[in-house]
Design a protein that fits this description.
- There is one protein chain.
- The chain has 2 domains: about 70 residues, Arc Repressor Mutant, subunit A, CATH 1.10.10.10; about 110 residues, Rossmann fold (3-Layer(aba) Sandwich).
- About 45% of the residues lie in helices and about 15% in strands.
- The chain has 8 helices and 9 strands.
- The strands form 2 sheets. A 7-stranded mixed sheet has the order 5-6-4-3-7-8-9.
- Strand 7, helix 7 and strand 8 form a beta-alpha-beta unit.
- Helix 1 packs across helix 4.
- It is globular and about 60 Å long.
């Protein structure tokens, strides 16, 4: 299989989510044009994205919903449960605990960590909150390899270093700091301020056109 471009990889969960809607609606097949209208991605891009995975559809027939859904379910590891740690239970951390990926059956926050004695040792939205002193031990014992980082920027790197030492391989970084990590660790940065400023910039200069990348 050819190496998948990052832009394509970002779109795969969008396709998967809409295919689930189609399945729930009892639809058996879908064309790239129908998909394009629904997810607001042009049909040529969809066909190119799908082409990286081989012959997923038939010309004149489109795509079989169940087959395509099963394929992307496996490709996106939706057929197994991934336990995720939340590091930092401040305002954003609490919001993420409240959300806890309720619409996903394959991802859940299973452990949270904080320095606040008022919440450590408690259960928040069904998730146990441990003191930061226990983080490395619990990450190792629970074999958690994915973590969400929402700590203050001043301690982001040191906390990330501890997480990585405990075996974390992927970090969703909500802090403004750009974390230094070995090549064996993948960092996904989510800078909400930057995203909002970028949105405002594009609105001011280019109008309300959807960014499909």
């Amino acid at each position: 299989m050819a190496k998948i471009p990052q832009a394509t990889a970002r779109r795969l969960p969008i396709y998967y989510r809409y295919l689930n809607f189609l399945k729930d609606a009892g639809k058996e097949r879908v064309s790239s044009t129908e998909l394009a209208e629904a997810v607001k991605i042009d049909s040529a891009t969809i066909r190119r994205d799908f082409s990286y995975f081989g012959a997923l559809g038939k010309r004149g027939y489109g795509y079989h919903v169940d087959s395509l859904l099963a394929f992307f379910k496996k490709t996106l590891s939706q057929d197994k449960l991934t336990n995720v740690a939340l590091i930092g239970v401040g305002n954003l951390g609490h919001a993420l605990l409240n959300f806890n990926f309720h619409q996903s059956n394959n991802v859940r926050i299973s452990a949270a960590f904080d320095i606040n004695d008022d919440i450590t040792g408690t259960i928040q939205n069904g998730v146990p909150v441990y003191p930061m002193a226990d983080m490395q031990e619990q990450l190792t014992v629970q074999q958690i390899e994915v973590a969400i980082l929402t700590v203050p920027a001043s301690v982001a790197q040191s906390v990330a270093d501890q997480m990585i030492a405990a075996g974390v391989k992927g970090i969703l970084n909500f802090t403004p700091m750009r974390i230094a990590a070995p090549e064996t660790v993948r960092i996904q940065n989510v800078d909400l301020t930057n995203e909002l400023q970028t949105l405002i910039y594009f609105l001011d200069h280019f109008g309300p056109k959807k960014d499909e990348e």
